[in-house]
Amino acid sequence: MQKDISPLIYYKILDIPKEKQHEEAYKLLLHGLHKEYDMKELPVIAKGEHGKPYFPDEEIYFNVSHTDGAVACMISEYPCGIDIQSIAKSIRAAKKVCSVKEQEQLACAKEPERLFTRYWALKEAFVKCTGTGITDELLKVDFSECIENDFMHDNMHFAVEEEEQFILATCNCVKTSKKV
After folding, report:
1. pLDDT digit string (tens) for the chain, length 180 residues
2. Residue 3 within a domain
3. For the domain that residue 128 is a member of, what is the CATH number?
4. Which of 26, 89, 105, 133 could form a Cys-Cys staple with 50, CB 3.0–4.6 A?
5. Does residue 1 lie in a domain region?
6. How many domains, in total, are found in the chain?
7. How far is CA 61 from the centre of its chain?
8. Residue 120 falls within a domain, yes or no?
9. How far apart are alpha carbons 123 and 115 in whole angstroms?
């Protein structure tokens, strides 16, 4: 069922209760699969060692994310990760997840909460792509030099979209993403 496509990114801003976000993210995934592959229902979903969902019977990679007020998904022919985050209210967690260089940039940023959210979304998209899960490895992944919204880093393609209340980050093994 392989189809030659660039990674597809879908996201929706929604006013729904937290307990409905997961369900809405998978509805969005089904929408994308229906549009691109004419699938009428979600294929069987399995989980990797660290909880990364995948389709064991399809040559399609995907990832989903949700936060208060938004859901997102990514569909690709290569491993991928996506994260959507509401802008952080604090940067207290920075010492646990940000490199020394990132922490230095946060200390002098005009909008440290927005920058921290960007770093966090990029790191989460990265670990979701690799399937390693959130570990102390996050301190070793440094995005302090990555100021563009579309860039290569550690042989992976990253893209960032910033909205007023959200930051969306993607990580993929290919160079281009097509936003829908």
Report:
1. 444 457 899 999 888 888 999 999 999 999 999 999 999 999 999 999 888 999 999 999 999 999 999 999 999 999 999 999 999 999 999 999 999 999 999 999 999 999 999 999 999 999 999 988 777 678 888 999 998 999 998 889 999 999 999 999 999 986 444 444
2. no
3. 3.90.470.20
4. 133
5. no
6. 1
7. 13
8. yes
9. 12
